[in-house]
Task: structure prediction
Amino acid sequence: MKSVLKMLPVAGLALGLAGLGLAFGAVPAAAQQAAAPKASPAAMAAAKEILTMKNASALYANAVPGMVEKVKGALIGQNLNYQKDLNELAPVVAQQLAGREKEIGDGMAQAYAAQFTEQELKDLVAFYKSPLGQKLINAEPRAIEQGMAFTNSWAQNFSEIVASAFRAEMKKRGKDM
Result:
């Protein structure tokens, strides 16, 4: 999963999290935490172990510096006169906030713990430690990449078919495209 996760930019973090089945939407984090039942320490530990085995931290490893750069860029766009100061402050702010990306990992573990029972999480840990589970962890990124490459190729080819169908229908109406 490492190579697939490396391809996800910080901007795709929300999409990546949504892909994991997390329904964050516009609900504030405090409200989400209050709505979800508190997972047991054992369930959280198993969920974190699964995420570690799947190298999920690669999804958000650069979330803090990425967000600092994104916000800095927006602030520079609004305050061109402060560009030098904002560029100087970016590493300071990034250092002050370093480590906050772990909150994402905790949230992801909580999401897993909310979707699976403690026993199911333990069973998943056992599976991922098995030879087949290890093969899945190692082979899945390539399978996903190949599937995405096929999907992109199919979409490109299919768009030509769709365009041809539009042109044919327009020609029936006496309009060349």
About this structure: Residues 1-28 have pLDDT under 50 and may be disordered. The two ends are 44 Å apart (CA to CA).
